[in-house]
Amino acid sequence: MDIKEVAYLAKKASIKLAATGTELKNKALMEIARLLELRKEEIFKANREDLKRSEEENLAAPLIKRLKFDENKLSEVISGINSLINLPDPVGKTLASTELDEGLELYKVSCPIGVIGVIFESRPDALVQISTLCLKSGNSVLLKGGREAINTNRILADIIKTATENTGIPSGWVQLLETRDDVNEMLKMDEYIDLIIPRGSNEFVRYIMENSNIAVLGHADGICHCYVDSGADLGMAVKIVVDSKTQYVAVCNATETLLVHKDVAKEFLPKLKEEMDKKNVEMVGCERTKEIIDVIPASEEDWKTEYLDYKLSIKIVDSVEEAIEHINNYGSGHTDSIISNNKENVELFMNLVDSGNVFWNCSTRFSDGFRYGFGAEVGISTNKIHARGPVGLDGLVIYKYKLVGNGHIVADYANKTRIFTHKKINKDFNL
């Protein structure tokens, strides 16, 4: 099938999927989890082939790390599916209700977006997370993974198609795309595709945004910051910064730049360096940082770089205001954390840092749909539209207005025979 036919089938399936009940969707999710476990050796074999080929092609180390799909990754995705099953269905919720007049009631009700195109690199576990989130939220999905994960993606997509079709989900709701030409064609499919979620480099995301009429949700870079304030517990700060940087470096919510208040820098930085050295983290820093610890000089480019590796840039600042200014200037609007016991500074930071996720005294690595209780995520959004931060179930639904009357006509209100009451009511939509 060509991509136009694939997109048409996905659109057709999305109409039926929007009306599919919670019980059937959860049954399908359980079957996906069962088949993933049952066919895991096929998955691992395909993944070993992808890893071998990618290593021979000298794929970058962070991408190799993301590509690996082993027993731990399998356990994580199955846990994510089980979490998703236990979450409320986001479709059909009454978000607001208003009596326009006696017997004329307006309901704002959540509904699926429709057909979502998702483009992602390297991580085959993302395919499972994305497709299961789309299923629970009633959306069809076109999935374009990276060439490096082609074998793993094929077997995972086959498992998901088989499981859902066996349980009665409309066929065609999930489709796997494999070529770059497919991406370019997808961008032209505004007749069928309602939203595109690109996960990749800054340049790639901007390319998608500039070459499609379809709405785009996503983020380009994950340039996340930790700021150690003058009012910080330094033992806590070391622990948080080490976790933010090293718990898993090849992800968008890992800290890339550390800002340290001048009043605590001399005491804090040597303690941090001792721990970072144990993790083999390369550190670059500003001139004032170099006067305290042995680091490579940082360039202007370092403040703008998402390393996705064991590397950290450090800058000493004079105030919380300077830290905020630096983050808003160089950050990507993803996730930023302040470590401080000064509530006035914390409030200023959390109010003025212009990011989708702003934390106090905790690791930036918490910025994640599964950790937020969303049942995994389709991606992180730095947009300022209907969804921001980790995009889980609630970010994959929109709403429609349902108006229920009893012979009401506008002419009666135009000639003042009747008048609107516009009274808020606490009532769910039910036929």
Explain this structure.
With 431 residues, this protein is of the alpha/beta class. It has helices at 3-17, 22-38, 40-56, 61-67, 71-86, 124-136, 150-166, 180-186, 202-210, 234-246, 262-278, 287-290, 320-330, 343-352, 410-414, and strands spanning 94-101, 104-112, 115-119, 140-144, 174-177, 195-198, 215-216, 224-228, 255-261, 282-285, 296-297, 311-317, 335-339, 357-360, 379-381, 389-391, 397-404, 423-424. Strands 11-10-12-9-8-13-14 form a 7-stranded parallel beta sheet, with helices on both faces. It is globular and about 80 Å long. 45% of the residues are buried.
Q: Calculate Rg over CA atoms.
A: 24 Å
Number of strands: 18
Contiguous helical run count: 15
- Which word captures the global form? globular
Mean pLDDT comes to 93
Strand content: 15-25%
What strand line-up does the widest sheet have? 11-10-12-9-8-13-14
Q: List unreliable stretches of 5+ residues.
A: none
Helix content: 40-55%
Q: Structural class given helices, strands, pairing?
A: alpha/beta
* C-alpha termini separation: 40 Å
How many strands, which pairing sense, and closed or not: the largest β-sheet?
A: 7 strands, parallel
In short:
With 431 residues, the protein is an alpha/beta fold. It has helices at residues 3-17, 22-38, 40-56, 61-67, 71-86, 124-136, 150-166, 180-186, 202-210, 234-246, 262-278, 287-290, 320-330, 343-352, 410-414; strands spanning 94-101, 104-112, 115-119, 140-144, 174-177, 195-198, 215-216, 224-228, 255-261, 282-285, 296-297, 311-317, 335-339, 357-360, 379-381, 389-391, 397-404, 423-424.
